[in-house]
Amino acid sequence: MILEKIEQLLNEVKGISASNAGEIEALRLKYLSKKGEINALMADFRNVPADQKKEVGMKLNELKQTATERINALKEQFSQEDGLNDDVDLTRSPYPISLGTRHPLTIVTNEIIDIFSRMGFILADGPEVEDDLHVFTKMNFAADHPARDMQDTFFVEQNPNDVTKNIILRSHTSSVQARVMETTEPPIRVICPGRVYRNEAITARAHCFFHQVEGLYIDKNVSFTDLKQVLLTFAREMFGADTKIRLRPSYFPFTEPSAEMDISCHICGGKGCGFCKHTGWVEILGCGMVDPNVLEQCGIDSKVYSGYAFGMGVERVTNLKYQVSDLRMFSENDVRFLKEFESAN
Question: pTM for the whole thing?
Answer without folding.
Answer: 0.69
